[in-house]
Amino acid sequence: MSQPLECTFDKNYLASATILYIESDERAREEASEIFVGFFKKVLVASNLGEAIKKFMDNQLHIDIILTDIDMPNETGITVLSEIRKIDWEIPVLVSSTFQDHKLLLKAIKFNLNNYIVKPIQLNTTLKIVSDIMKKKEQKKALATKNNELRQFMAILDSYNIICELDLDFNIKTVNDAFVINSGFEIDELIGRKYNDKQIFCNCESSEIEIKKLLSFGKSWVGLSKKVTKDGNYYYTHSTILPIFKNNGEIKKYIEFSTLISKYENEILALKKHILLLKSENFKTNSELRKEKDYFEQLAKKLQSQVDDNVNNAQKLLFELYEVKKRNNELVEKMKVQEKRFEEFQATILSGH
What we know:
Elements: H1 11-15, E1 18-22, H2 26-36, E2 42-46, H3 49-58, E3 65-69, H4 76-87, E4 93-97, H5 102-109, E5 115-118, H6 123-160, E6 162-166, E7 172-175, H7 177-183, H8 187-190, E8 201-204, H9 208-216, E9 221-228, E10 234-245, E11 251-260, H10 265-280, H11 286-310, H12 314-352
Parallel strand pairs: 1-2, 1-3, 3-4, 4-5
Antiparallel strand pairs: 6-7, 6-11, 8-9, 9-10, 10-11
Helix pairs in contact: 3-4, 10-12, 11-12
């Protein structure tokens, strides 16, 4: 087993691993064990079936990989594999053999082997194989962690958002409970319906063509959406539509995440009514216009305060603040126009006298 060692493996994966090494040949076992100790976090050694199973049972939670001899007398090596796989089918297992009996290898393969090593064991090759297996194991563990975090994140999104999945033709594929509750429709009444169906989606700030064009370039759309309940009532959402991609980069589907904002629609409509009322009046004095301006500024501050107090969702908070500021700026501009008209009206009256 001695050989010049040119390191072609990642020592870090070995340094954090515990290996169970099973070898019936005493000389091979001692030579390999002595070297393994310098690379692995911990090395457990067994020479026969009983010792191997006991070591595995006592340290099952800590063992990361098993390297076992299958050339043991009376096919004891196959029995070791069988007994270990009865306890744990997933733990990585390597077998070492001279492979003079190919039937023995065929029997061993049935026990979910990760790889095999030809005797006499070559140190660099063995450690590289083990390192690669441990790397894949760590990557699999990291992926499982990320998937678990993703599931938790999706659960949070699902609990706070109205979610609708759409196919590439903007047909509804599925919706979550929040969508069903707010719309009043049953799921089977929604599946297959078009996103531009006026009985479900009244309108968005952008046209369907504009939204599809944006999404087709892999970008997301964000805006205000007006939806219809089964009873014909309206409810308003701040929506984000995202493209979901396949592994090859092609778009697979779209998902709309929406937050309900109908709670504040009355305040927004009230602002619109006041603006319309202001437009319909023939003239007002400067003091009256300034008073109206102050009133709307106070109303806007009140609405913003309501948002600050009641909206826990950051997306709704940002959207409402943006809407209030936009409306307030529009109002200021309209005030200026009205003031100018009033001044022109006064000038006309004075010139008439």
